[in-house]
Design brief:
This protein has 339 residues and is an alpha+beta fold. It has helices at 10-13, 45-50, 91-101, 106-125, 134-149, 154-167, 170-180, 211-228; strands at 23-26, 35-41, 66-70, 82-88, 188-195, 199-206, 232-233, 254-255, 260-266, 279-287, 296-297, 301-302, 305-313. It folds into 2 domains: 10-81 and 199-326, no CATH class; 84-193, no CATH class. The radius of gyration is 31 Å and the shape is extended.
Amino acid sequence: MAEETKSNQPEVVRNRWKNGKQTYLSFPTKPFPHGIQMIFKEYNYSEFVVNKRGLNPIRPQVEGTRSIELPFPRTMVDSTGVRIASFERNFLTERIAASIAGQSGTQIGQGIMDMAGAAASFLQNAAGAVVRDPSMALSAMQDALGRVTKEQGLNTARLASFLIRNFLPEELSKTVGGITGTAINPNETLAFEGVDLKSYTFSWDLFPSNKSDSDQILQITRLLKRELLPRFSSGGLTDLGPFATEGISVDRIFLKYPSVVIINLLGVDPLSWMRFKPAMLTNVSVDYAGGGTMGIVAGGRPAGVNLSLSFTELSIHTAEDYDFSSYMGVTGQTQDPVG
């Protein structure tokens, strides 16, 4: 039986000291036992896109970083999706695909080239003649199909007739269908096109109970906006040379990528909750009428705010991210509870 999974205790990953190298902010000032932590780091393509494709570590390094800790948001939805599109696979395309699939090695590539060449040949020599001279179009397509399917005679003639019908003007094609009482069966199926990048939107109602909490809300919203937005950059240039123009500074001709955020859940069983990958903050929304009422407290500060944050991860999730090996060594378990 697997050992009991130990909770990710908040004190293990929190580091509240502040100096010139680190900024740590939390609301409330004394955090709850369970919360969500956001660690901001400078964008680095090699680190976060090329080489860092796995889940965020359960016990991240926070020294020398800028981090924010908040209570759990009002809702926390983990949505995983893939891109699926429908496409038609009539018997002709199935026959051509089967012909190519039955080949091996370099023959597959040659089969694809033959198919492309046949299609080009038909479009150039036959498509324009479908209505003017159907027999010429039929002959051209029959020859092209023979090159691709390696079939001859009656079979290619039937396939060519089918394809020619597809190239008829829409009204004429429908008329032919009405006369014969048949319509082409599209045989629709699905094609996998990729994985959606995960996106999250979390929101909080923050009501300060003292001046310290109010100070923290102010600092948290300012830090979030700084991490969301880009900074000016020279891009490594020292001057603009012959392109120098009065009023244009070399330090402002580029924009640096905004920060990357590492999201972690504190004080919970990691196997029972969503795990994140490095993400970018895409939206910060602050409603100063928290709870639907515009209230102002001593010092002219809002009585409460609604904070909403949106994130999009930098890389897709794959099945490997949910193999047990992704969690071993950090959860205390020795065997996969799923099997």
